[in-house]
Every structure is written in structure tokens, then in C-alpha cells.
Design brief:
- Helix content is about 40%, strand content about 30%.
- By secondary structure, it is an alpha+beta fold.
- It has a domain of about 150 residues: Thrombin, subunit H (Beta Barrel).
- β7 and β8 form a beta hairpin.
- The mean pLDDT is about 75.
Length: about 280
């Protein structure tokens, strides 16, 4: 019993001393190295833990921010590419319209009397007639538009392109001037010459041939050849091409000329049909 009381008294004494020490420290604001070391250690440990957690949180935040920003940039990039594509298509359309306008102006560069006295119908090239890729093409006009067989067809610069050979309801075939079966009366445009002849197509040759020119006719390389209008099937003055070379024909009884044709049927897009002249 006495032993127990001594232990109890000793423990109580220690606790009281500790309380007294704590009280004295708080009252007089004493600093003890051990307490300060423990405080700093706990502070550093807590600060390291909080800093680590904060760094991890910031990294996760930055990662998700980067993802969201990347998604925004991707959407913005897509929108810009779409806008650029639309602008490119718009510019291409404008260039096409400008080129078409220039071609139409060039096609209307006909003699004034032809414009005044003719009824012109515009049409587009649809394609070439199968089996005759070089000499016949299809256009987007037919009998519903007043087109009839044997009507002349012109293209850029008013150059004679050919003649309606088979008028359909909404489309028609054009026999091109380069067809060997095609022929048209022609003459030298030069007023001091007026040499005349017949222009025909040549098999396998893009150039034309002018035949039945008088043996003493005044014709020279570079002369411009136009329709003569003698037969009445074509108006006079439609451009055809220019003379490249002249040679004797029919044993010297006449002359023949190689004509550089002005048009390439593969690049033609629009045409005019002369409904009335």
C-alpha cells in the first residue's frame, strides 16, 4: 500500500512539474531547444507534405488545362481550315466567273453588222460525241431553244467552230470545221487581195487546208482567213485562221494554203449558235 502510494505520488509530482514547466514557458515566453527542434521538424514535415500535394494538384490542373486548351486550339484550327477552304473556293469561283466573262466578251467580238443582224443563242460544251472525239462535240441547246440543223456555231473571238449536224431536243451535235467532211467558202480578209477558196478539215491534222485558190491570187503567209458568205450558209467575215504556208495545186492551175486554226476544241467551254443572220 505504501509502495503504491509512493509510485502514485512520484507520477503526480512529475506531471505537476511538467505542467509547471509548461506554465512557466508560456508565462515567461522561454524557448527550449528541444521544443523548438520538434516544432521545426513538424513544421518542415507538414510544409513538405503540403508542398508536394500542392505541386501534384497544380500538375493535374495544368494537365487538364492543357487538354482543354489543346481541344480549343484543335477546334479553332478546324474552323480556320474550313474558312480558308471556303475562301479558296470563293476565289476560284470568282476567277472562273472572270475568265468566263472575258471569254464571252471575246466571243462577242464579231463584226458589227453581224451582231446587229444576227440572233445569238449561248450554249455550253457538254462533251464530245463518242467515236468521234476529234471532230464532233455536244452542246447544251436543242430544238426546244430554236436550234436547227446546219446553223453555224462560233466560239472565242467569233471564230467559226462548225455547224449543227444533229439537233436534239435539249442537246445538239456540232460538226467541227476540222472534220474532213466539213467545207466552207473563205477568203483573205485583206482588202487589196480578196483571194477566195474552200476551207476543209484534214484527217489527223489540227490545221485546215484552203483549196481552189486562183493560181495568180494574192495570198501570203500571215494573211487572215475569214468566211466569204458566198454560199449563204454562213455569214461573211467569221474568223477562221491565218495562212501558214502556200503551195501550188492541180499541176499549177491553182494554189492551196495551210491554215493555222484559231481554236482548240478540247479547251472550248462556251459557244454561240447563229439562229438568224
Amino acid at each position: 500500500m505504501l509502495k503504491f502510494n509512493k509510485r502514485k505520488l512520484g507520477l503526480t509530482t512529475i506531471i505537476l512539474l511538467l505542467l509547471l514547466v509548461v506554465l512557466v514557458v508560456n508565462i515567461f515566453d522561454y524557448e527550449f531547444y528541444l521544443f523548438r527542434w520538434l516544432e521545426n521538424g513538424v513544421y518542415n514535415l507538414v510544409a513538405f507534405f503540403i508542398g508536394t500535394v500542392e505541386n501534384v494538384a497544380n500538375s493535374i490542373h495544368d494537365f487538364y488545362q492543357s487538354l482543354f486548351r489543346a481541344q480549343e486550339l484543335l477546334q479553332e484550327n478546324r474552323a480556320l481550315r474550313r474558312e480558308i477552304s471556303e475562301l479558296m473556293i470563293y476565289n476560284i469561283s470568282l476567277r472562273e466567273l472572270e475568265q468566263e466573262n472575258n471569254r464571252l466578251r471575246e466571243m462577242l467580238n464579231l463584226e458589227e453588222d453581224l451582231l446587229v443582224n444576227s440572233s445569238l443563242l449561248g450554249a455550253r460544251k457538254v462533251g464530245f460525241v463518242p467515236g468521234s472525239w476529234e471532230d464532233r462535240l455536244m452542246i447544251s441547246a436543242g430544238t426546244n431553244d430554236g436550234v436547227e440543223d446546219r446553223m453555224p456555231v462560233v466560239s472565242y473571238g467569233g471564230t467559226l467552230l462548225g455547224i449543227i449536224d444533229n439537233a436534239g431536243v435539249s442537246n445538239s451535235q456540232v460538226k467541227l470545221i476540222t472534220d474532213p467532211e466539213f467545207s466552207v467558202g473563205a477568203r483573205v480578209e485583206r482588202e487589196d487581195s480578196r483571194a477566195s477558196g474552200i476551207v476543209r478539215g484534214q484527217p489527223g491534222n489540227e490545221n485546215l487546208r484552203m483549196e481552189r485558190i486562183g493560181w495568180d491570187a494574192d495570198i501570203s503567209p500571215g494573211d487572215k482567213i475569214v468566211t466569204s458568205g458566198v454560199s449563204g450558209d454562213y455569214p461573211r467575215g467569221l474568223p477562221i485562221g491565218r495562212v501558214i504556208e502556200i503551195e501550188p495545186a492541180s499541176y499549177g492551175l491553182s494554189q492551196a494554203a495551210e491554215i493555222d486554226y484559231n481554236l482548240d476544241s478540247r479547251t472550248i467551254e462556251e459557244v454561240f449558235i447563229l439562229l438568224d443572220f
